[in-house]
Amino acid sequence: MKSTSLSLIAGAVALAAVTGFAALTAPGDADAGEAKAAARLPVERSSLLCPAPGLSDLAETTYTSFTPAADSSGAAGAAELMPSVSTAAGAGDGATAETGGKKDKSKKADSGKPVVSLKKPGRPATAEVSGSDAPALVGTATGELAPGWTTQQTTTVSAGATRGLLGVSCTGPDTNFWFPAASTAKSREDYVHLTNPDDTAAVADIELYGPDGSLKSDVGEGITVPARSSVPVLISTLTSEAADDVTVHVTTRTGRVGAVVRAADNETGSDWLAASVDPTGTLVLPGIPADATDVRLVAFAPGEEDADLTLKLLGKNSAISPAGHEDLHVKSNMTAGVDLKDVTKGEAGSLLLTPAESGRATPVVAALRVVRGTGDKREVAYIPATGPVGAQATVADNRAKGSILSLTAPGATGKVKVTASAGSEGGEQTVQTYTVKAGTTIAVTPPVPAGLKGSYALTIETVSGGPVHAARTLSLPENGIPMFTVQTLPDDGGTVEVPDAEQDISVLDD
Description:
The relative contact order is 0.17. Strand 18 (258-265) and strand 19 (269-273) form a beta hairpin. The strands form eleven sheets. Strands 11, 13, 14, 15 and 17 form a five-stranded antiparallel beta sheet that branches. Strands 20, 22, 23, 24 and 26 form a five-stranded antiparallel beta sheet that branches. The longest helix has 14 residues, at 6-19. It is built from one helix and 40 strands. By secondary structure, it is mostly beta strands.
């Protein structure tokens, strides 16, 4: 019997372009332990999940979907975000699922039609939905629309306990998420939103960790998320223990979900808390606004060892140690919080966490709770630790006024290219490069497309030097309240490594 490895190789290369599979050894290789050199190719399929934005009848939500323009066009494709089937069932025994409020006469999502549909790369597509019962969205992009596909969900609530500007970059599905800076305090109402993109049910577990360790909970286990549905779970119903600083850990037993936390505070409003980068020894939290009046760092060490961290604020000209907060000790499986107050002192910056002892890097996760304004005119946003922009990072829904781009180089000096896309309703793209000196942060008004009409997207590409981390702040002040939201810009995964196809495809003999 004879067989060939050609079809196997072709299939694996196609798989790599979709999933990121990056190692391939053809049968018959002399050295099966060595993979061939890999090239980077655009992905052919992307998935995004947006949480249900409904907060009140006053909620106004804008979706902005975008794929960066490529140098060479790929196969024609589609990118659509559809309403999920359900947003109020399956939260698990004893857990509380959030239900929509009263029906209103505002624009609603039609369950049988896409909420937002992107037709071509290089220009954003937008859609608006109003009211408290707007659904979670489940979407897929294929062909030329898949590489770097991103969607921004921006919600404005002008009054009430959940007032504020809430922004989130819709996420891809996964099986593991960490959310430091959540809370079960009486002043907070934090929900974990779980969205299942697949045609079969997913089963998730939610673990909570406070300052003294694990918070006892039986109802956070085995939460069923029905197929193509979303389940919001009020985390204070998962435990009887109230804690100001809580780390939420979401995992799945079966299937995969998108997960994000909606955090609401009685005094400072609400915003989305995106997941921290996976546990690692060094963390970067970029984009603290210059006028921040209160900054709180929350960190968690999920392993068996305590973590000792050194804190550095990377500012405009140099890296400094925050006075009185040069170091942070994080006990194993316990959440640590520290109030850094107005740490930026009127100058935008980023926070760098590194191991206090060289050669001993204990994995941690972290996030910042950032407040602007004073008194009853305060507004909150969250900044999770994030990875570098890498090959390419993208954020949508930038406005002619109110957008600030923060770039920080925690190691060596780095250079990036920033492309402002064509506007959603008109205008032409423009490009600008920035050099970020080692150990500093620059905060700039990003380039604006010529003749801009509508909103636009920013795409950041590494040109040379060390890694650069980025965040975008969108400010839409209202009634004297400095409403704002911050989105970090990690690598968008638009390309994956694919093995060299030039491999031994000789036939095999039995």
